[in-house]
Task: structure prediction
Amino acid sequence: MAQSEGVLSLYKGILPPVLVETPKRAVKFLTFEQYKRFFLFGSDKPTPLTFSLAGLGAGVTEAILVNPFEMVKVTLQANKNKMGQVPSTWAVTKQIINESGFGLNGLNRGLTATIGRNGVFNMIYFGFYHSVKGIVPEYKVSDIKFLRKVTIGFVSGTLGSIVNIPFDVAKSRIQGPQPVAGQVKYRTTFGSMAIVAREEGFGALYKGLTPKVMRLGPGGAIMLVVYDYVYEFLDDYFK
Result:
């Protein structure tokens, strides 16, 4: 890409995730806390099932918010022109709406795949982190305490990435340009997965896993650790 389209082509589609990233994280953690109360099922304390279901609910809610931005981002990234020749984010958004509307064939194309991707990731991400954190012994030494949380967060992000990437591959195929103009080959989430596995091999469902883990392993650890410390601080402050 850098050779044929220029170095800046590596940053195609950066504006949509920049715009949605802060509200996306806010929605994720806010709704996780609300769903956590809902899924207590009469228990005094959250269980691993509570954390997992709350994570799933938070992921689904997050996906509904981010999917239009994902659709625009994928469209921008699929454009093979040099950076200066690529239409603006707003121009691409208007084009999608004018041609296909806001629905599941337009700005919200690939919604079920995004729900699957985000829902599965957050189910494992929150479920594993909070469940394992309650099992692994906690140390009073601040450095070891911090390292413990970072390690569990890194494993959580890595596991979530490994399990949810087939949904991510399906989402990219559905939202990206179809192989033959005028023909929709990748239409449904599981149908797209089946086509990829049949035509390209099962391993093709894990394309892009390495960069995904490199991003969401450490990124997931940082988010959960910051969330934990901020939550503890606010909980103590407002008692």
Notes: The chain is about 70% helix and 0% strand. The helical segments are 2-5, 15-38, 48-78, 89-100, 111-133, 142-175, 189-200, 209-237. The chain has a mean pLDDT of 90.
